[in-house]
Structure formats: structure tokens, C-alpha cells
């Protein structure tokens, strides 16, 4: 069991256990056994923090089923190894070298030292942000739904938003709160904080602590921090402008006033980055808006976060590589730092592998469910791979074969193309032969 196999197998075990729990009569609102395909799809969507659902989770599942759903999406958001490490810390078990190597690969950290402390910081950060989100959202939900129901809605949506899961107990997601500034900005903040990556949050904390305590120690932000934050800001700003322009006269934004349209455009720009909530009817977006959504879903969140996609850093490296090629430069630089060749190869592999996954899923879903339009199928497959959860409304109508296609796509999107290939293939052996170099025509 290599680290990659351990991580993939762990996710599969959690999905299987979740599917069994969600299929029990105690998990459904009517007290009957759930269809196992439905339970498997929902469990996969929760563990992969996607949010796609073939049923209305707020009505279909009982309180017990909703709690199971929360546990699954929390495990999926934190990651299998992070959750496992935390549980082992609670029971006082010592970690073997294999455990530390697996945790290193799961958290994508350069060394095995400091992994345990990082897990503790991740758990603490998660609890602080989610609890803060609960208190703020309770203020928005309690006036309409009462204190007790409002508190449960706040807990569920705070955890779902921070983990970028996109599950909602409302049948129309957050369409009923499209004019609420409090709910919109709170959910958006939770989504951004969850998707930006834990290492970025920890660097922010260290910087704030040094500023408040006026420490003489100078905090220098890492390249990962600068790339993740700057790329995220560009995507959020560009997405807001593009949605506002493309949906100026669309049916989705028609009943909103000037400022409400900007609010809706901002929220859609945030949620397309793997969150899955929506304050407008996605099926009524213009064709331009749908393509913007597909592009943003494919990019996704940042490394180390709770979202999916090819990641913001991967996209930034690819754009920098393209810029260097157009300028005739042999080196790829970002913020005065040269990007290693092995990182360029990895970024290209992630992008191409992800694109092939979406293409294959789109072809298979077109075969199993030919009654849907191409844009609907492409949108659904990209949403599944990016672990976003947005849908044009076709998810409940997808056939059993189509559901299996989406299940596999969600799983690949959550564990990552590179990690999955590392689990399926044997470890590369050191090569003693160096092949001659030769050029060819490209472009």
C-alpha cells in the first residue's frame, strides 16, 4: 500500500460506509430503505464535496441522514488523511514512517516534519471559521425559520460552505436569499476561506500576529501564497464583471435591481469556484454565462483547500509558461522566481489529464443520456470533476449508467488525476539510460 493507494482506498471506504448509512430507513424522512444507487451517489457527492444530488436532501433525508451527510462532507473537506491523523491523535497512537509519508503526500508538504502540527492547526482553523459562520448565518435564518430551525440551518450551511460542498437544505439552494447581503457575503466568505488553502490561511495568521504584537520578525509570504491569493482575486473580480455583463438582460437576473444584479454576479463568481450554491436559476443563465461558469469550474480552488478543479496555481503556471513561450524565453518566472522544470511537467500533466477526464465523462454521459443537450452534459461533467455541484437541473433525471459516470468523475476530481494515476500505476524505477535529445515542429 503506497501513500497514493492508501489515500484513494481511504476515500472509497468512507464513501462505501456513507452509502450504507444513507440507505438505512433511519436516514430517510419516510422511514423506508433508500435506493442504494441514490445513497451511493449522495455519499460520493458529499465525500468529494461536490454537492450534486439526485434528490432534495432537505426533504428526502431525516435529521439523522442530514447529520451523516454533514460528517461525510466534513471528512471530504478536511481530507481522509487529515481526519484519520486527527482521530489517531485523539487516541494517542504514535505515527509510523509510512503514516508520515502518506500524510506528507496528502497535504502536499515538502517534508515529513511538522505534519502533525499542521493537522492540529487545520482542525483548529476549521472549527473557528465554521463556528463563526454559524453565528452570523443564524442571524440571517432565525427571523424567518425560528431560533432552533435557524440554528440547524446555520450549522449545516456553514459547514457545507466552508467545505465547498454546496449541499443546501432549501429546495432552491439559496435563491430565496438572493437579496440578503448578510447571507450572500457570509456564504461567499466561507467559500473563499475554505477554497484558498490552509497554508495560505496559516501564513495570514502568522502575518496578522506579527502585526498585532509588533514583532521584529519579518514575515515573507511564500510564492504559493502570492500566486494563490492574486489568482483568486483576479478570478473573483473578472468573474463578477463577466457575469454582470453577460447576464445584464438574461432571464436569471431579470427581477433584480441594479445593486442586486451586482450582488448576484459576485456570488456566482465565488460559487462557481467549486462551491455549488446558487442564488439564481442556473438553467436560465445565458450561453455566455454558462461558458464562463464552465471555465471557472474547471480552474477551481487553490491547493490545500476544500475545493477541486485543476487549482489556481496550476492555471497560473500554465499562463506563465504560455507567456514565456510567446516572448521567446526559455525560463518560466513568477514574481521573480524561476519555476522548476518538474513543476511545469506536473502542471501540464494535471491540465491535460483533467481535460481528458471531462471529455471522456462528457462522451459517456452523452451515450447513456442522449436526451440532454450538449451544453447540459458538458456543464454537468465539468461540475462533477471540479467538485462544484452546480447543475442546470438535469441531475435527478440522469439514468443509472449516467449516475455511475458522474460518481467516477466526482471521485477522480476529488483525489486528483496525478494521485489516482500514482495509485493505479507502479512506482517509476530509476533509469540508468539517458536518451539523445532531438527537436520537432510544434505549433
Could you describe the 3D structure shown?
By secondary structure, this protein is mostly helical. The protein has one domain. 64% of the residues lie in helices and 1% in strands. A two-stranded antiparallel sheet has the order 1-2. Strand 1 and strand 2 form a beta hairpin. Helix 7 packs antiparallel against helix 8. The longest helix is centred in the first third of the chain and has 31 residues. The radius of gyration is 22 Å and the shape is globular.
Strand content: under 5%
- Topology as a string of helices (H) and strands (E): HHHHHHHHHHHHHHEEHHHH
Q: What is the approximate shape?
A: globular
Helix content: 55-70%
Q: How many DSSP H or I helices?
A: 18
Tell me the strand order in the biggest sheet: 1-2
Give the low-confidence spans. none
Per DSSP E runs of 2 or more residues, the count of β-strands stands at 2
Amino acid at each position: 500500500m503506497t501513500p497514493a493507494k492508501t489515500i484513494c482506498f481511504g476515500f472509497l471506504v468512507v464513501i462505501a460506509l456513507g452509502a450504507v448509512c444513507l440507505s438505512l430507513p433511519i436516514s430517510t424522512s419516510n422511514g423506508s430503505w433508500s435506493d442504494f444507487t441514490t445513497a451511493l451517489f449522495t455519499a460520493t457527492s458529499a465525500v468529494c464535496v461536490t454537492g450534486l444530488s439526485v434528490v432534495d436532501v432537505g426533504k428526502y433525508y431525516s435529521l439523522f441522514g442530514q447529520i451523516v451527510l454533514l460528517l461525510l462532507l466534513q471528512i471530504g473537506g478536511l481530507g481522509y488523511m487529515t481526519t484519520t491523523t486527527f482521530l489517531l491523535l485523539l487516541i494517542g497512537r504514535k505515527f509510523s514512517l509510512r503514516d508520515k509519508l502518506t500524510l506528507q503526500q496528502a497535504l502536499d508538504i515538502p517534508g515529513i516534519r511538522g505534519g502533525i502540527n499542521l493537522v492540529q492547526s487545520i482542525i483548529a482553523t476549521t472549527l473557528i471559521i465554521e463556528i463563526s459562520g454559524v453565528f452570523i448565518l443564524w442571524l440571517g435564518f432565525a427571523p424567518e425559520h425560528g431560533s432552533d430551525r435557524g440554528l440547524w440551518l446555520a450549522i449545516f450551511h456553514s459547514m457545507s460552505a466552508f467545505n465547498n460542498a454546496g449541499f443546501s437544505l432549501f429546495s432552491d439552494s439559496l435563491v430565496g436569499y438572493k437579496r440578503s447581503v448578510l447571507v450572500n457575503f457570509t456564504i461567499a466568505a466561507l467559500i473563499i476561506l475554505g477554497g484558498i488553502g490552509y497554508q495560505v490561511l496559516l501564513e495570514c495568521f502568522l502575518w496578522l500576529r506579527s502585526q498585532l504584537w509588533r514583532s521584529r520578525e519579518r514575515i515573507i509570504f511564500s510564492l504559493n501564497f502570492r500566486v494563490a491569493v492574486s489568482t483568486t482575486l483576479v478570478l473573483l473580480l473578472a468573474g463578477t464583471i463577466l457575469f454582470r455583463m453577460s447576464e445584464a438582460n438574461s432571464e436569471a437576473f431579470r427581477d433584480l435591481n441594479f445593486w442586486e444584479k451586482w450582488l448576484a454576479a459576485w456570488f456566482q463568481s465565488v460559487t462557481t469556484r467549486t462551491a455549488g450554491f446558487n442564488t439564481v436559476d442556473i438553467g436560465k443563465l445565458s450561453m455566455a454565462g454558462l461558458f464562463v461558469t464552465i471555465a471557472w469550474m474547471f480552474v477551481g480552488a487553490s491547493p490545500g483547500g476544500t475545493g477541486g478543479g485543476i487549482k489556481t496555481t496550476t492555471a497560473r503556471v500554465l499562463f506563465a509558461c504560455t507567456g514565456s513561450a510567446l516572448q521567446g524565453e526559455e525560463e518560466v518566472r513568477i514574481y521573480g522566481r524561476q519555476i522548476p522544470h518538474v513543476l511545469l511537467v506536473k502542471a501540464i500533466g494535471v491540465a491535460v489529464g483533467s481535460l481528458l477526464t471531462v471529455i471522456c465523462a462528457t462522451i459517456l454521459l452523452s451515450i447513456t443520456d442522449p436526451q440532454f443537450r450538449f451544453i447540459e452534459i458538458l456543464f454537468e461533467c465539468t461540475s462533477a470533476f471540479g467538485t462544484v455541484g452546480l447543475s442546470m437541473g438535469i441531475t435527478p433525471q440522469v439514468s443509472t449508467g449516467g449516475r455511475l459516470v458522474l460518481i467516477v468523475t466526482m471521485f477522480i476530481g476529488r483525489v486528483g488525476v496525478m494521485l489516482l494515476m500514482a495509485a493505479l500505476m507502479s512506482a517509476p524505477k530509476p533509469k540508468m539510460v539517458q536518451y539523445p535529445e532531438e527537436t520537432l515542429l510544434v505549433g
